[in-house]
Amino acid sequence: MSVASRGVERNPGPSSAHTANEVSSVEPDWSREQLRAAWDPGRQLLRSIRQYQAFALQSGPIGFLGRYWNVLMHRFWSAITGADIPLNVSIGGGLLIPHPNGIVIHPDATIGPNCLIFHQVTLGTGGTKTGSPQVGGHVDIGAGAKVLGGIRLGDHCKIGANAVVLADVPPGATAVGIPARVIPAGAELDTEQFSTR
After folding, report:
1. Does the first or last residue of the chain, that is N or C, have fewer Cβ atoms within 10 Å of its Cβ?
2. What residue numbers bound the domain in which 157 lies?
3. Model-level pTM?
4. How far apart are the C-alpha atoms of 122 and 148, rounded to whole Å?
């Protein structure tokens, strides 16, 4: 009995059930950044960045003390996590960094809302295009991936672990390999092209 005859679709298209549960690429989900415990290094680091940026808008002694305290907290949590995320980086709300060790983000890079970044990820300069990466909304970046140069990662795209991305990735696509090859959204993955025989 074939899959189609049982009424099961192999690649279901978008439906209201799928889109209702989809994470937004525009509207930040701030609950993703809420502390789960006092010892939550990734969220604590992100919290120090958010609070520093809020106090940077204030003048006077409250603004100065708030910035000073959050610089200290940022340095502490950066040392604990081994991450290099600058205080002035542009990060959309809802960022998840569950394993923050070794994450390096260039100060000029921008990250959209509701992204997921795993450990040892680098968002930096270099590559074939000048500038820093522009990451869209709800982008998942796997462990050890390197995203280099003035490229754009489209909304809802995925970057595979240890991929080296040097070119734009369209929305919904997946980039894997060194250098990264783009698999369009909805395309079947041909595993033969990745074999090392």
Report:
1. C
2. 84-184
3. 0.82
4. 8
